[in-house]
Amino acid sequence: MSATPAELSKKTVLLLAIATGVIVANLNYIQPIEGLIATSFAISKATVGLIATLTQLGYALGLLLIVPLGDIFDRYHLIQLMMVLSIGALLVAFWSPTVVIFGIASTLIGVTSVAAQVIVPYAAYLAPGVHQGRILGNVLSGLLTGILLSRSFSGLLGSILAWQDVYVIAAGLNLILLVILHRYLPRDPRGYQRRNYLKVLASLPHLLRSQRHLQGSALNGFCLFGVSNILWSTLAFYLASQYHWGSSIAGLLGLLGITGVLFAPIIGQLVDKYSPRLTIGLSWLFSALAFGIFWLTGHLFSGLIVGIVLLDLGTQFSQVSNQAIVQSLNREASSRNNSVFMFSYFLGGSLGTFFSTWAWSHYGWNGVCSVAVVFLAIALIGQLALRAPQKLHRLN
Length: 396
Fold this sequence. Notes:
The chain is mostly helical. The protein has a single domain (10-385), classed as Up-down Bundle (Growth Hormone, Chain: A). Helices cover 78% and strands 0% of the residues. The protein has 16 helices and no strands. The protein has helices spanning 10-25, 34-41, 45-65, 75-95, 99-112, 115-126, 132-160, 165-184, 197-210, 212-232, 235-243, 247-253, 258-273, 276-297, 301-326, 334-385. Helix 3 (45-65) packs parallel to helix 5 and helix 10 (212-232) packs antiparallel against helix 15 (301-326). It is globular.
């Protein structure tokens, strides 16, 4: 069944941006309150870091197994189904009487929060080709806003309420969004696609092998989101050690990433007008400068501020540029290409979380920064070997 995508209104783009932000926020509530969770369950910081890793590994699993369903089923209904399951997982996390149940709930939160990554290729499918970068930039600015505000939201609530309350309030926010999306989310013009699910999954390795630019985006996203999580997974520990500050400060520092939010539409325009190769290079440069500042001047609060702004800017340059590349490759495989890219993206994030919390436990801040250098070195080698396209091939 062929279908012609409808024009996206500004209100619809705004709704899609808000939806991705609210949904993806579920992944990041744990980061500023890791210390509170560790105290509550009487577990080590390394153990709570492992739970945070499980959340992102669950998300990576959902990206691999659920997001490809967007190339088969009606995305309007698929997005809502995943949100219902996500609300259930958040409520289990709120109720969890033991660390084991909380770990299971955290994993399920990751798996069910992939609705945001069903929305991204859906927005790209509905967007006119010549404006795809700009529209993706707007939608992804909503995603980054959700990441940033979730850290601040969680950190501030954790300082005045029980950490469990973060999850029940998040469930309420997702329920409100679900009602709004049911009423206003655009219907999928494609309808049901007659494809075999197992064959769709089996096509993922072929898509990666046959598309050089998908390989480059997957590797770049893996490394640079890993670098982002290296900071955010250990910042609360560093602030407590260096300044004796609590989770609320870690949450407030997350607001510095507003720079990346403001730049996301501009980045999309740069991709449309100039070159994704240029913006991918800038993403690495900003991230490398950030960790150079963290390592040399991280003991100064001003150094942390400058570094966080640069790091979030680098993360957003990487995300918008890579999504524009990935969504320009093949309209009929847009969900599967996004699945491959975002699986790699969050696999890198989960490994960044794991190795950074391990490095913090054994080697402190120097160890954390050393892990970032490894990720950045791999990203640079990948950029030289798998160069991003100079111009995008527009799919109308």
